[in-house]
Amino acid sequence: MRVSLEGKLAAIVLACVLFAAAASATVTAYTHSIFTGIAVGLLLALPLSLLLVRRFTHGMNRVLQALADGVASFRDGDFSMSLGAERNDELGDLVKAYNRIGEILRRERQDLFQRELLLDTVIQATPSAMVLCDARGHIVHSNTAARKLFNKGRRLEGHGFESLLRANRPEFLPVITAGNFEGLFSVRLHDEDEVFQLQRGAFTLNQRAHRLYLFKRMTREVNRQEVATWKKVIRVISHELNNSLAPIHSLAHSGRELLKRGDQERLEKVFTGIGERAHYLRQFLDGYARFAKLPAPREEEVEWSGFIETLRELAPFRVVGELPERPGRFDPAQLQQVLLNLLRNAEESGSAPEDIELEVRPEPARHRIVVRDRGRGMSEAVLQNALLPFYSTKKTGTGLGLALCREIVEAHGGSIQLANRDDGGVEVTLLLPV
Predict the structure, then answer these.
(1) From 164, 168, 257, 288, which residue has the greatest number of CB atoms within 10 Å?
(2) What's the pTM value of the predicted model, to 2 decimals?
(3) Does domain 126-217 have CATH number 3.30.450.20?
(4) For the segment 329-346, what is each residue's pLDDT rounded down to a tens digit?
């Protein structure tokens, strides 16, 4: 049967009152003095009440002290303590709630430990070298690949990362000290060139700044991609050469027959056809040569108004908005080539000349150049591959136009983005740093 703390306290008070009343009545009957009976009853009830209250509070104090110790252990991260007090009152409910919380915390800690163990196993097994440094540049955690790469399998924790590289792997030091460099770089290890990809991450751990370095070996992947690219180049060049050489061979054979018959009129057409195929083949090979031998940009300050006016003489478009007063800094010949390619693509997409737009908008630390049209647009597959070399949806295309644009823009430290417009057409955005 459940008895509350309030009920137990009321029972103690009632027992003391009844005992005092009984003692007073007994003493009054013998002494015939009511005041003597009351005084004696109170004196006898006082020790009884003290005894009962002490017994009542002793059990409460033990439970409360155990709960206080348990909460202190929670604060210290120890969830192993459970309480075994068997009480059928509010303190018993509190003990049961404490035990349930402890069980939940123990289970969650066990799950967290298992996840941490799994994560550490994955980190240690990954072939990428991972190094975690604190704000002072000292290594606080590393995996097996990092220990093998930077310290011959020995422990890295506690070392300064830059000093460790300076002593063991000076080849990696320039990319670590080069600000926020991320991407591919090549070093020479064991008399062989190795390609790595560096990724960085900054975050706060235990209220302290940390930096994560991830070094991924990319040599095999780069070699595989290089071979695949060369195969594609060979296929494309072979296809175009065959498409031109086969007609040239056929026309040359026909020319010999016409020469024997003295048919000068048709012979002129044969030579014209040979010349056209040779001219197309030369243009095709020149396109590959320009892509392969793209020079480094010779950047200079360029006023936008004069640059756009020169461009307007070469392709139809209309300017949207005001041109920036602040001059741009780029290679004018190369950027003109980029914009001409984009404007001609817009014209070939079926867009009306008056719907081809060019906008130059200044932004903090960069210029945004946007070319828009109202042509056929692009499918998702074309959008994803349009900037890749040798990808083309045109029957006579080389797949180098947009790839060359991307190469030029990235050589300027910028980026290029393609997107379909809501009402039809394509929007190409160039972001050039100032």
Answers:
(1) 164
(2) 0.44
(3) yes
(4) 899 888 998 898 899 888
